[in-house]
Write a structure and sequence with these properties.
Length: 466
């Protein structure tokens, strides 16, 4: 390990940063809408099972690879891979991760831009008084907004630039401090909204929707597993990178457990809030007002926010907090790409951030234009009509294919190629004896790879893309 390797400032520093990476738009924007699109219930159960059986073990595997080598994904696999069958080939897993960082960032920054815009929008509504027609009009307004090319490019680019500034500062001085203050506020606010929604007329139906057991398609299972990877920031080496800055005093398994629990709780709370609003309106109105689309956070939620006491105050605060949650996630995405240039190409952090940022910008501009601004980009559908448009196609491809496949190779590597001594000692450093070690090892050796392979085969062999 090189002596200049940066480290997290404190023991909680890593938890906060990793939880900051995990908790983001995946929890508050994406999870509610894909749960709604997949009819809740069984989808949520599969997702929970995926977090426990696949997500948590792979999270531990990623962090241990990072801390063991003190390197970012490509370097880490080069080092550990050189001792086993496959050798340098393993670094391709790291390379796939770096590529994943580009792809995810390119559309993630677009949605992050929306949260900033809605902060402004809500501030405007709050100051000028929200009028009844705004309520009915939320869906149309959102549609107009995303189809506005210049606005989309401006907001996505601004978000990229802010992320670049933070990453340039180094993660410790920038993001670790911000996260420590803002995440608890976001959590409290969401909890408050959750409690209030218990009294809404739609609460019971929302809970039923979330936890009933219904039929499932193989596509839905793939999506649930894919989302477990996405929301926990797994499968592309983000936690290998963050793990490389972890001190030897930290307990990897305790930290991983905390991160998984926090992430899941926030995602479920977001669902409770969102669905309570959705089910509080009549079925007929629901069909016209709420599409089963990516728009729920921006069309459903303002309705609730402005019906609350102090709603005019809470609404803008809520969106700015979500924007910060997104920022702590984009920072981790960019950090993977940047640390590759720093470690493998020996670039300065400064140069790495500028080049990586420029490359991401080149991809995110067409993505920003693929929500109505440009016909061709809006209509391409390599993965079927359900995921039409460059924006949805990239999200689909990255979360449902790149991340699970990255996770597959990570679990195969740690389960079958890395020695027991190495994994066991990493998981026990900073903590006590790991009694569940055999369980963990069984999960990474058999359960994770077989589950992922089975899903991939089911989807390819089945009625794959509609
Ligand atoms: N986990 C984040 C979210 O839920 C997104 C994210 C950040 C991510 N870094 C990642 C996803 C790395 C996959 C890999 O919003």
């Amino acid at each position: 390990m090189s002596e200049t390797r940066p480290q997290w400032g404190s023991r909680v520093g890593f938890i906060l940063a990793a939880a900051g990476s995990a908790i983001g738009l995946g929890n508050i924007w994406k999870f509610p809408y894909i749960t709604y699109a997949n009819d809740g219930g069984s989808f949520v159960l599969v997702y929970l099972a995926a977090v426990i059986l696949i997500g948590a073990p792979i999270m531990m595997a990623e962090i241990l690879i990072g801390r063991r080598t003190g390197k970012s994904p490509v370097g880490a696999f080069l080092e550990l891979g050189s001792e086993v069958v496959g050798g340098r080939l393993w670094s391709a897993v790291g390379g796939l991760g770096v590529l994943g960082g580009f792809v995810i960032f390119s559309y993630y920054s677009v949605v992050a831009g929306w949260t900033v815009y809605y902060f402004g929008q809500c501030a405007y509504w709050s100051l000028n008084g929200i009028t009844p027609h705004i309520d009915a009009d939320l869906g149309r307004q959102f549609g107009d907004f995303v189809a506005n090319g210049p606005l989309q490019v401006t907001f996505a680019t601004s978000f990229l630039v802010v992320t670049m500034l933070v990453v340039m500062l180094g993660v410790k001085r920038g993001i670790e401090r911000v996260t420590r203050v803002l995440m608890p506020i976001l959590f409290s606010l969401l909890l408050g909204m959750c409690i209030i929604s218990v009294w809404s007329p739609g609460f019971r139906q929302a809970m039923h929707f979330l936890f009933h057991v219904g039929p499932l398609t193989s596509e839905a299972i793939l999506e649930a597993v894919g989302h477990a990877f996405f929301t926990l920031s797994l499968g592309m080496g983000a936690l290998i990178t963050y793990g490389s800055y972890v001190s030897r005093r930290a307990s990897i398994r305790r930290d991983a457990a905390v991160i998984c629990v926090l992430d899941t709780v926030i995602a479920l709370m977001a669902c409770v809030v969102m669905f309570s609003v959705i089910f509080s309106v009549s079925t007929a109105e629901r069909a016209t007002t709420f599409s089963k689309s990516a728009a729920i956070l921006f069309t459903t939620l303002p309705r609730l926010l402005y019906s609350l006491p102090f709603g005019a105050l809470v609404a803008p605060v809520f969106y700015i907090l979500v924007a910060f949650a997104a920022l702590t996630s984009t920072v981790s995405l960019l950090e993977v790409v940047v640390s590759y240039f720093i470690d493998q190409r020996r670039w300065s952090r400064h140069r790495a951030v500028l080049v990586a940022g420029g490359m991401i910008l080149a991809v995110s501009v067409p993505v920003a234009l693929s929500l109505g601004a440009n016909d061709l980009l809006t209509s391409i559908a390599p993965f079927g009509q359900r995921n039409a448009g460059l924006f949805s196609s990239l999200d689909f491809f990255a979360s449902n294919w790149m991340l699970p496949i990255g996770g597959l190779f990570i679990s195969l590597f740690v389960g079958w190629f890395l020695s027991v001594d190495v994994s066991r000692s990493e998981l026990e450093t900073g903590g006590e004896e790991f009694r569940l070690y055999p369980v963990w090892r069984f999960l990474v050796r058999y359960v994770c790879p077989l589950a992922i392979i089975w899903i991939v085969i089911a989807v390819i062999g089945g009625k794959a893309f509609n």
